[in-house]
Design brief:
Layout: H1 2-16, H2 24-47, H3 54-74, H4 79-105, H5 111-132
Length: 133
């Protein structure tokens, strides 16, 4: 977690070092860069655990990836692009659900963790269907 805190402070500091962005494109690009850095930090944490539980590491990594995917979906220019990004969100949720189910079968996670992961898949699928309408 210490490396995460240091890298986050550095990432935020680099964005704040210059003048405050005043145009939408700059803000969007800065946000995407920051979300990408956060996802990379959590990916590193999953591969190199430093004190947090496996479940917490997986959840942090999953949530960081989802934040980046949601951002891309929300800033997509067309409905078709939004649908493609939402499909990636559904797949990310399915991958996470599979991981949690495997962990449950090995005795690493509780049944409630699998149910929560399954609900997130259904919510992502619901969002996809609503976007497609």
């Amino acid at each position: 977690m210490k490396i995460f805190a240091v890298l986050t402070v550095l990432a935020i500091g680099s964005l704040m070092a210059g003048e405050e962005p005043r145009d939408l494109e700059t803000i969007i690009n800065n946000r995407k860069d920051l979300l990408t850095k956060i996802a990379a930090i959590y990916e590193y944490e999953v591969k190199n655990p430093m004190g947090s539980s496996k479940l917490e590491s997986f959840q942090n990594f999953n949530e960081a990836n989802l934040n980046l995917l949601r951002f891309c979906r929300d800033t997509a220019a067309t409905k078709t692009e939004k649908i493609e990004w939402q499909k990636k969100i559904v797949q990310e949720e399915k991958n996470f659900c599979d991981l949690i189910e495997e962990g449950f079968e090995m005795g690493m996670f509780l049944k409630v963790n699998t149910l929560l992961a399954e609900e997130k898949v259904l919510a992502a699928q619901q969002d996809l269907l609503q976007i497609e309408q």
